[in-house]
Amino acid sequence: MVQIIAAREISLYELEEKFGLQVATDNNLFPEWTENLLTLTDEEKQGLERVKSNYLNFIFPD
Questions:
Q1: pLDDT for 7-51, tens place per residue?
Q2: Closest by CA position to 13, among listed 26, 25, 23
Q3: What are the residue ranges of helices labelled H in the chain?
Q4: Whole-model pTM above 0.90?
Q5: Which of 29, 26, 42 is nearest to 50 (CA)?
Q6: Residue in 23, 21, 22, 11 with CA at minimum distance from that of residue 52
């Protein structure tokens, strides 16, 4: 039987421990999300990399 868990009732830590949740850094994981997109400027790419870096540092502090 499938158990449904509301997102507000579970933490990322619990998902990692109970279900083996892992961060996926493969840029080709969901190719349909990256097909037929507008080209980003260098400034936009730098901004996105900064956000990604800050996010990963937040969830995986040293």
A1: 889 888 898 898 898 888 887 888 888 888 888 999 999 999 999
A2: 23
A3: 12-19, 42-59
A4: no
A5: 42
A6: 23
